[in-house]
Amino acid sequence: MPSSPLRPIWWDGDAVMILDQRLLPHKHKVLRCTTVDDVIRAIKTMAIRGAPAVGIAGAMAAALGARTIMAADVRTFVRKFSRVCERIRSARPTGNNLSWAVDAMFAVVVENPGVDVPRLQQLIREKSQAILEEDVRTNEAIGRWGMEVVPRGARILTYCNAGALATGDYGTALGVIRAAFAADPSLHVTCCETRPFLQGSRLTAYELMAEKIPCTLITDNAAGSLMQQKKIDLVIVGADRIAANGDTANKIGTYALAVLAQANGVPFYVAAPRSTIDPLLPNGSQIPIEERDAKEVTHFYGRLVAPRGMAAVNPAFDVTPHRYITGIITEVGIIRKPFTRGIRRALEAPPPTSNPV
Ligand SMILES: CSC[C@@H](O)[C@@H](O)C(=O)COP(=O)(O)O
């Protein structure tokens, strides 16, 4: 399994190690988390971010919590573990992967009746590592499938950060770009800075430069003009939650990009693992949208830039209606329209082998 210097999270003994993404690219600091609350804080403050990485962090937090539960019997352990899981689930609301991972962690106790508490704690810990490793294999499969939508010499636009840092490693949208670049070094990536948290200029630009992938940074406002000038061949973004009809929540600003892409005849792809799909939501209208601190808008690196007392709203995500999406690149293939049927089939498909056919 690849292990890039930019992997965001790993176990070190009984501690969860988290690369603090708030400080990147200029400072590498690793947080040593030994309690559930340490990890929840890292998720809420976006020391770790990106839907799949948040899911992995949630799984590891569950394992940390399980280890410290004091319980005389399995029943008590399960009751306490359930409470730990619910606390972790609510750390960030929009990404589906966190709920998916917490469910997978709780399933360990459901699927192992008659097993004593120490063994359950061990199985829970092993499950968290398995979720991390599976995520990397999943992203590599997304990369292999995604290569087929990237023409030779493509000029790709991406948004926010859907790279190694946003996942266990390798990335989803950036996984496709990594795979395509390995086959065709002539491609070029434009990344948008992604106001207000700057995941594009701080993280995506950093990952692309580390991989020596030709890239250029633009302000978010410049994307439409580049498309209008025929300087972009396709857009690839990640996702936080995909409804059963293909409506996709992703970083605020994604919707605007998708509309611009359609207006300019540019294909618009979403790259995401199946754990991002929420089949219980018929469409995107009920996807919970995280509202973050207004200070992220009024301040820049802690310095007030708007007039003092200025009101601001800061929705962290938006929902792109499925009609603007050309295809959804998953680990089991590319889902095309009609998405409802394709998504159902993808969810039923067996996990990928290492060489998709
Ligand atoms: C593979 S990451 C997919 C998404 O989580 C990503 O595009 C995104 O919107 C991240 O938002 P963030 O607020 O940085 O967690």
Automatic annotation (TrEMBL):
Gene: mtnA
UniProt name for this protein: Methylthioribose-1-phosphate isomerase
GO biological process: L-methionine salvage from methylthioadenosine
Function description: Catalyzes the interconversion of methylthioribose-1-phosphate (MTR-1-P) into methylthioribulose-1-phosphate (MTRu-1-P).
Pathway, per record: Amino-acid biosynthesis; L-methionine biosynthesis via salvage pathway; L-methionine from S-methyl-5-thio-alpha-D-ribose 1-phosphate: step 1/6
Gene Ontology molecular function: S-methyl-5-thioribose-1-phosphate isomerase activity
Pfam family, one: IF-2B
Residues at the active site: 240 (proton donor)
Keyword annotations of the record: Amino-acid biosynthesis, Isomerase, Methionine biosynthesis
Organism: Desulfosoma caldarium
Residues carrying the site annotation Transition state stabilizer: 160
Enzyme Commission identifier(s): 5.3.1.23
Family (UniProt): Belongs to the EIF-2B alpha/beta/delta subunits family. MtnA subfamily.
Signal sequence range: none
InterPro entries listed in its UniProt record: IF-2B-related (IPR000649), IF-M1Pi (IPR005251), IF_2B-like_C (IPR042529), Initiation_fac_2B_a/b/d (IPR011559), M1Pi_N (IPR027363), NagB/RpiA_transferase-like (IPR037171)
Enzymatic class: isomerase
Reaction(s) this enzyme catalyzes, per UniProt: 5-(methylsulfanyl)-alpha-D-ribose 1-phosphate = 5-(methylsulfanyl)-D-ribulose 1-phosphate
Annotated binding of substrate, by residue: 49-51, 92, 199, 250-251
